[in-house]
Amino acid sequence: MCRKYTKPKEVKFQVFSSFFLSDSPYQQQHLIIRLNFKPFYLRAPPLESINRSTSKIEYAIEWNIRNARKGFDSPCKKDYTTAYAKFNAQLQWRCVAKGNGTANIMVIGNSVAQRAYLLIYEILKGRFNELRLFARNNCAALSNECPSFSEAMRKVVQHEKPDILFSMHITLAEPYVKPVEDLETDLIYNQFQSNVNFISNYTKYIVIDMPYYKYSNFNSGAVLARRLQRGLFLGDEFIITWQQYIDQAQHHRKRISSLVCNKCIINDVAEGLFQNGIFFAYDPRTYFARIGDGTHLTTVGIELLRPLYKRIIEKLLQELNEESLHQDKGKQ
C-alpha cells in the first residue's frame, strides 16, 4: 500500500534555453545525439556563465540537457594486466586505479557499474591497493548473456583474487524480470548462482546491488528540461512509487535475494532512492534529474547511494584490517 504524497508545485514560468526540446521522442533522441558532437555542443553557454542564484530554472534546463546522455569519466588508467582475459570490447570500461592501502577491490557489471565505480573511488579515498573496473555495456556480469564477457570476468577474478568484489547491473530484459516459476530450473538464477559460486573461491566479500528503477523509452533528463523550458507541470512520470518499482523489479530481486552465498552482501540501493515510499526522479529543490537518460543515475542521483556504499565499505575495510592484524599476531 503506497503512502500519500504531495505533488511538486507546477512551474509557472517559461525560460529561454539555448536548445529547444520537442515532445517527439525521436527529436529528443536526435537532440541528445547532436549534443555528442563537439562543435554543436560548444554553442551552448557554459554552465559557469549562468548565475545559479538568479537563474535557477535556466541553470536546471542546461544541466539536464547535458546530463540527458552523459557518461562519467573514470579516475583510473588502462588495465594492461587483463590482457590475458582475451577480451577487447569497450576497453575504456576496464581500468585500474592505484591507492595507498592494501585491499584489492574489483567492480563488475554493465554500464551502471562504470558509474558506481566513481562513487566507490571517492568513498575509499585511496584506501586500497588496486581498485579495478571490469564492465561491459548491456552485459550483466553474473549472468552469461554475454558469454565472452562473463568468461573474461571469471579469468580476471581468478587471477587477481580481489578482497572485495562489487557487482551491479540494471536491465528490463525479459529473462530477468519475468516471474520465477521454479528457481531450480530458472536460467538467470542458475547463472547468477554458478558465477557467485565461482567468484566465492577467489574473493573474501561479494557485494551485489539490487536493481533500481529504470524507465522504458523515456529520456527523463531531456523531458524534464523540455517541461521546465515550457513551464509545464513536470508530470507524474517523475514520481515513482514503491509499488511501481516492485511491479517492475520483484522477480529480478527474487533471483538475487535467493542466492546461496555466505560471502555475499546484498546492497538494496532502493533504500537510498526511496523516501516514505516515493522516489523523485529529480531533485525537487534544484530540478536536476536524478535519472539522466531514463536508465543511468546522474551525479545527483548516485549521491543518494553514498550512505549505503559508505556503510558497506567502512565495515568491510575494518574487517579486512582486523583480519590482517590477527594474521600478523599469529606470525609473532
TrEMBL record:
The SGNH domain sits at 91-310
Sorted alphabetically, the Gene Ontology cellular component annotations on this record are: membrane
Q: Name one GO biological process term.
A: polysaccharide biosynthetic process
Q: What Pfam families does its record include? A: SGNH
Identify the PANTHER family for this entry. Answer: ACETYLTRANSFERASE, ACYL_TRANSF_3 DOMAIN-CONTAINING PROTEIN
- What is the protein name for this chain? SGNH domain-containing protein
